[in-house]
Predict the structure.
Amino acid sequence: MFKPPKGVFMYVSNLHEFGRLLPTEGYNASRLHSDLWEIFDNPLDWREKYIHPKYSEIFTGGVVEEPCPDVFWFPIFSETTCDELVEEVENYGEWSGGKSEDKRLVGGYENVPTDDIHMTQVGLDQVWLHFIREYIGPVALKLFSGYHTKGFAMLNFVVKYTPERQAYLKPHHDSSTFTINIALNNKGTDYQGGGCKFHRYNCAVESPRKGWSFIHPGRLTHLHEGLATTNGTRYIAVSFVDP
């Protein structure tokens, strides 16, 4: 047996990970991509599979961009997350059609409607809110110094833009303190056109990157519009945070 010199404190740490036990009682294998729901029961594997590999670089510098004033752009989702989320909503298939009359909303009316599916409709609402608190909250605090988000969002949804159904979105403000807008597929491969224009600054972001998110103030200063998708299908995930 190894015996350290008398009076010398030694600390030994095993840095090798040999695996971990996972709870399986709540795992629902009937879903198309059941792992998406594992953010609570299996957070380490969930992060490894679904969060962008460059996420941690947001906090160490070099990866966040600011294409327009107070519009920040950063990596958040892996390719797998984007693909599985699109497949989940398409599997559900009940798109709203971009109509103002909307029974999903309190009051039944949407002033600036999109062709979308809400996270509540596919059962991802609690997962999504936890994702906002765990992964978006720290980013918001870094980029908007002094603001501590409540991580609350009533509207979380995937939008589908196509030339045939809804190609663009008229200028509007969001009912949020800040908004996140995550690109779920690739411009040039999956669709043409698209992007977002911020009117106050005459500034547009026309080449969204799959798995990257915009974050910007929702009210007053950041009137914006969704630029027309001219070919193919564009998907984005949107949340209005702290309404």
